[in-house]
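User: Fold this; tokens only.

Assistant: Input:
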Amino acid sequence: MLEELIIRTLCDTLPLKPLDGLFLFGQTEDNQSATFESAQRLFQGNRISKVLCLGTGPLSGYPGFEVWKRQLDQLGIGEGILEAVPPVPADTQLLHTRIEAESMVQHAKKRGYKSLVVTAAPFQQPRAFMTAVTMALQVYPELCLYSLPGKPLPWQEEVTHSQGEVQDTRAGLIAGELERIKTYHAKADLASVDEVLDYLNRRDKGKL
């Protein structure tokens, strides 16, 4: 079942109608261009009206909102399009995928957003999407989330990832991501594969 979920998160189908926005999970400088490309492509194709990312300073390997704001502006995603998501909790001293996902879902609920795409580096995408769905099920279960991985970058390139502390090739990071899925589910921090697949099936049938 995990194999099915991985394939569906990497090859999700987006609806034809425009979505409320795209959320970019925080990436290190080594991997951020992968997600920027996806944001630019969807925005230029009129598939989204907003691009969202965490509104913090540099934290846990994430360069910070102001840095991303300048870089995304150069790609045509400027004032009025890029939206800062307040972190939950507001005084957090670190970022990880669950904090980002909860912040995104809380923000979407407050703004009344009904549909969002979530994007991370391809090797992180399955776990990032599972975490986003986990938080949606807990906080805002009618939110329609769609999965769009960032652009693939060279797999054998050595990069920094995971709060700026883990170094490996992008291919080498895959095993760690799969292990985290098992570990976080065992700790009840992550919905099960069956629960996420059920969410996807209900979403696609219009039954959220």
